[in-house]
Write a structure and sequence with these properties.
The protein is built from 21 helices and 25 strands. The chain is α/β, with parallel strands linked by helices. A hairpin with a 2-residue loop joins strand 4 and strand 5. The longest helix has 31 residues. Bound molecules: adenosine-5'-triphosphate. InterPro entries: DExx_box_DNA_helicase_dom_sf, DNA_helicase_UvrD-like_C, DNA_helicase_UvrD/REP, NERD, P-loop_NTPase, UvrD-like_ATP-bd.
């Protein structure tokens, strides 16, 4: 359609909406004025809110507060924007918030805020039994005859004029059937208050309010449009609903460190985020939410803000290394990181004592030995050769005798002295320094709780560091992750970190809410023969039992004879998408080289690209592009994996006994990474390959 045509359609729609609103406003005012016992101010607020009831919201007025004898609740509103508990005030003096207190006419009015919070907690309890996240209920204090929009803790204070527009512009959180279910449930939990001052007249049939007053109202149409919009909504649209088992985890009281594990897509992150909001809402201290991946925390911060704006500023989302550097800086400890100098230091060390040692017989790629130092020696905080000589090198395949370990140790010492010579630290040093600092008793506890997402990506020293921040305090440390999605070498057991997870403090989620069966089956086939050991030391087979929630999805396999044909097929698939579907699509690659290649390809084809390192969780009208690593923890409706089998999948079919241990280890890691990338897809997974010449 021509642009002019769609602009005129939009203008027509805007006029229709305006007329509709005007009609709804008239009807609402008329109805509010029939609430004779209410003050004029309360009627004005009610009129604003009654407009919402014409737009898919349900308004419960003057309800009994369960568990009390005579107290009432002014209003509860349930709608696409969530659940709100309202207290309507008709004060003679203007309200103000000063130094965390509510005041009016020179007097402290905190008792009103306390009552509203207590009612909100009752409502949270009621919706939690429906499986709704407790953080989705929000308290509002609305002031008749005033104009304001401010906050007091988690309470939002709004004036008579602001309340309608603010609620109407809330982002979509609940679909229509959820609004119905919650409102029905709350109607039962908060029965009508006897002797109600503002209840609508009994003679007025309740249904009248939701029926069109005349032909101008197209309520059915509005609802259908809202529903359709929810289905089309970008993938970032946050889920407010949790399964009752997940809600229980969010609200649970743990007596010490706890852990949530489970296969890909089982809602671990959702639970972690709701838990962060819950703790921030309940306690007085700050919550630290840590991930290893460098941009994931930004995305998660955006999600939390959408989900629970009132608490968002009490949760710090950080990448582990950046946080550790800030922490050291705050404590006055100097660190110097310089990537180039670190590489040179290792390069020299390898040349001097590695290249001609017995290590080269096992694997002559220096990278393997650098990983040994990073993940095994420094990552596990090993400080003496004897300790290293007796170490069980978890998830490392090459068997090293004493002689080889001695050679690794020499390489490590040489590397350390080269770093010292250049006066630089590497990333492992930063964590070790931060750990030493965190263990120093300063009397300050910066955080009440620490939540670690994708914990399998951390090293042992990283986990020790975060544990040191909160110790074994109740509800202090929560570790969220899945060993099957480990994408870095090496590993450790929690017991080595001195973390004891026992009884109900170790929880496993089992229902995959993300992937369709076809997609999950394809992903599990890649790692089917790779049993793995998780941080609790349990060995688990690669093909795990997962419960599925049934929704459609498909796997598209495209095999071409040349890279050019393969790339053209990718472009065709992307071009075939409607333009608003591209924003929920991601092209993921195993290497940086491949990312540069596909960035050029998409640029040349005129397709807008958003690199994952720039993605912050807000919907963006572009195809996302990034590495398998960067895609960790994220999800997309459609995932495109060009050349997905160049690194790992095909190798899995080679006879294993002829392959050196270190190569097998690398391939295993490649398969884990591919598994992670594949399980990012919700509805469609596109797997591209270039046919290899069997003789080649
Ligand atoms: N109870 C639920 N009902 C419906 N959808 C849910 C539920 N719980 C989680 N989801 C959805 O399932 C998807 C996967 O959730 P999440 O990202 O938290 O899983 P995860 O276990 O952290 O995944 P991964 O380990 O693969 O990163 C998300 O879209 C989330 O909104």
């Amino acid at each position: 359609m021509a642009a002019g045509g769609s602009a005129s359609r939009r203008a027509q729609e805007a006029r229709r909406q305006e007329r509709l609103l005007r009609e709804q406003w008239q009807a609402a005012r008329w109805e509010a004025y029939r609430w004779e016992a209410a003050s004029e101010g309360e009627q004005a607020v009610a009129a604003q809110l009654l407009v919402l009831t014409e737009r898919g919201w349900r308004l419960l007025v003057d309800r009994k507060w369960p568990g009390t004898r005579a107290a009432n609740v002014d209003m509860i509103l349930v709608g696409p924007g969530g659940v709100f508990v309202l207290d309507v005030k008709n004060w003679r003096s203007a309200p103000e918030v000063a130094q965390g207190a509510l005041r009016a006419g020179g007097q402290n009015r905190d008792e009103h805020a306390a009552k509203l919070l207590a009612v909100t907690r009752s409502a949270e309890g009621a919706v939690a039994s429906l499986g709704m996240s407790p953080v989705a209920v929000r308290p509002l204090m609305v002031f008749a005859g005033r104009s304001l929009d401010t906050e007091l803790g988690r309470i939002r204070l709004l004036g008579e004029r602001e309340v309608g527009p603010v609620l109407l512009s809330e982002r979509l959180r609940l679909p229509a059937n959820s609004v119905r279910a919650i409102a029905d449930h709350l109607e039962r939990a908060f029965p009508e208050y006897e002797g109600s001052a503002v209840a609508p007249p009994a003679s007025e049939p309740r249904e009248r309010r939701t029926e069109p007053a005349d032909g101008l109202f197209d309520l059915e149409g509005l609802r259908d449009a809202a529903l359709e919009e929810a289905l089309r909504a970008p993938i970032e649209q946050w889920m407010t609903f949790l399964h009752p088992d997940q809600v229980a985890l969010v609200r649970r009281n743990w007596s010490g460190p706890a852990r949530i594990s489970g296969p890909a897509g089982t809602g671990k992150t959702v639970v972690g985020l709701h838990r962060a909001a819950h703790l921030a809402q309940r306690g007085s201290g700050r919550v630290l939410y840590i991930t290893f991946a460098r941009n994931l925390h930004r995305v998660q911060a955006t999600f939390l803000k959408a989900m629970s704006p009132a608490v968002a500023d009490r949760v710090d989302f950080r990448g582990l290394h950046a946080w550790a550097q800030e922490f050291l800086q705050d404590r006055g400890v100097r660190v110097r990181i310089n990537g180039e100098k670190i590489d040179t230091a290792f390069g020299f060390a390898w040349k001097n004592v590695g290249r001609d040692s017995c290590l080269a017989e096992i694997d002559d790629t220096p990278g393997y030995w650098r990983e040994e130092i990073d993940y095994v020696i420094k990552g596990r905080g090993i400080t003496s050769f004897e300790e290293y000589a007796g170490l069980s090198r978890r998830r490392r395949r090459a068997r090293l005798g004493r002689e080889h370990r001695r050679a690794v140790w020499n390489l490590f010492e040489e590397y350390q002295s080269r770093l010292a010579e250049r006066e630089v630290h590497d990333f492992q040093d930063v964590l070790a320094l931060a750990l030493a600092e965190a263990r120093r008793e300063t009397g300050q506890r910066p955080y009440a709780a620490v939540i670690v997402d994708e914990v399998q990506d951390l090293t042992l020293v990283g986990v020790r560091l975060l544990h040191a921040l909160v110790g074994d305090a109740p509800n202090g440390l929560l570790l969220v992750g899945d060993g099957q999605q480990a994408v870095y070498p090496g590993g450790f057991r929690l017991s080595e970190a001195g973390i004891d997870i026992r009884g109900d403090r170790g929880q496993v989620l089992r229902t995959n809410y993300r992937n369709s069966k076809e997609i999950l089956d394809a992903a599990l086939a890649v790692v089917a023969d790779d049993p793995f050991e998780d941080i609790d030391g349990l060995r688990t087979p690669g093909r795990r039992d997962v419960d599925l929630t049934y929704h459609d999805g498909r796997v598209v396999r495209v095999v071409k004879a040349s890279t050019a044909e393969h790339d053209e097929a990718l472009l065709d698939a992307l071009r075939a998408l409607p333009s608003d579907a591209r924003r929920d699509s991601a092209v993921l690659c195993a290497s940086m080289r491949a990312i540069s290649h596909y960035q050029r390809l998409l640029d040349r084809a005129g397709m807008r690209v958003c690199l994952l390192e720039h993605y912050d969780g807000n919907p963006v009208e572009a195809v996302k592009l990034g590495s398998y690593h960067r895609a960790k923890g994220l999800e997309f409706k459609r995932v495109f994996l060009p050349g997905h089998d160049t690194d790992g999948l095909a190798d899995a079919r080679a006879p294993q006994e002829q392959v050196p241990d270190t190569v097998r280890e690398r391939r295993e890691l490649s398969r884990s990474r591919l598994f992670v990338a594949m399980t990012r897809a919700r509805d469609e997974l596109w797997l591209g390959s270039v046919r290899r010449d069997p003789a080649g």
